[in-house]
Amino acid sequence: NNMDKNIDEIKIDEMKIEYSESVLLDVSGLSVSFNQYVKNLKQVELNVIHDLNLTVKKGEIVAVVGSSGSGKSLLAHAILGILPSNAVVSGNILYNGELLNDKRKKQLRGREITFIPQSVNYLDPLMKVGKQVQIGMDKKDASKNQKKLFSRYGLKTKDEVKYPFELSGGMLRRVLISTSIRPEANLIIADEPTPGLHPEALEETKNQIKELANQGKGVIMITHDIHSALDIADKIAVFYAGSTLEVALVSDFEGEGENLRHPYTKALWKSLP
Ligand code: ADP
Ligand code: MG
C-alpha cells in the first residue's frame, strides 16, 4: 500500500544521503569491449574489462596496480569518457552520487575530474605548453596559477611559450602533471605519472598528490611503482585481466603479507624488492 511505499522511498533517500557524503566515485559492474574486424571481415567483440568495481572516497588515494594490459588505462578512459568509438561500455559510474553519461563526463573532464595521461602524446603538438596548462582555468587567474605550477615543477618562464617538441620527456611529464592540478579538481586520475621523473620531481609529485587528498579530493593513481603506491596510497586495487582481484590496505602489504587474500596479490607481495 501507499504507506509502505513511502517508507521504502524514505529509506532509499537516506541511503543516498549517507552514500554521497563519503563516496566520491563508485564504479560498479564496468565492462568494456571492442568491436573488431578479424579475418574474412568477421566482426568480433573483444572483452577487455569485465564486471569491474572500484570505490574512491573523498580524501582517499587509491593506487591501481597490475600487469601491463590488465585494463588500468581503459578504466581511467572509461571514467573520463575518452574511450575510442568502437568501445562498447556497460556498468555504472557514479560521481558524487550522480550517474555519469558521456555528455556529463565531457563537462567534468579537465575541470572537476582531471587526468594525468600515461603518454605525453596527449599534449597538443600545436599549442604552447603554458596555454595548455591554462585550459579550463578561470581566465582571470589562469596565467598566475599556471606560473605557480610551473615554478613548483621546476619549469621556467621561458618554457611557457614552447611547443611540446621543444621540451624533454621529463619536462613534458611535468607539464602533464601541471594540467591536472587545479583548484576545481575533485578527482584526479593519474595514469603512470612518475616514469622518467628525476627524484626531486617524483617527491614533489607524491607530495602534491598527498596534499590534494588532504584537501578532500580523491585520487586514482595507476602505477607500476608499487613502492610509490605503498608510500602514499590508502588502498591498493590489484588488477588482473580486466578485473579487480583484490582491494588491499597498505598495511596488508606489511609484515608477511598474511592479510592478503588472493594468490596473485601474495605473489606480488613476494616479488617486492
Ligand atoms: P594497461 O593495464 O596496461 O593500462 P590497457 O587498459 O591500456 O592496459 O589495455 C587493456 C587491454 O585492452 C589490452 O589488452 C589492450 O590491448 C586492449 N585495448 C586497449 N585499447 C584497445 C582498442 N582501442 N582496441 C582493442 N583493444 C584495446
Ligand atoms: Mg596503461
From TrEMBL:
GO molecular function, one term: ATP binding
Ranges where the ABC transporter domain occurs: 32-266
GO BP annotations listed: peptide transport
Chief subcellular location: membrane
Annotated Gene Ontology cellular component terms: plasma membrane
Recorded catalytic activity of this chain's protein: Ni(2+)(out) + ATP + H2O = Ni(2+)(in) + ADP + phosphate + H(+)
Keyword Phosphoprotein: no
Topology within the bilayer: Peripheral membrane protein
Localisation: Cell membrane
Keyword field: ATP-binding, Cell membrane, Ion transport, Membrane, Nickel, Nickel transport, Nucleotide-binding, Translocase, Transport
EC number per UniProt: 7.2.2.11
Assembly information from the UniProt record: The complex is composed of two ATP-binding proteins (NikD and NikE), two transmembrane proteins (NikB and NikC) and a solute-binding protein (NikA).
Family membership noted in the UniProt record: Belongs to the ABC transporter superfamily.
Protein name in UniProt: Nickel import system ATP-binding protein NikD
Part of the intact protein present: 15 to 287 of 342
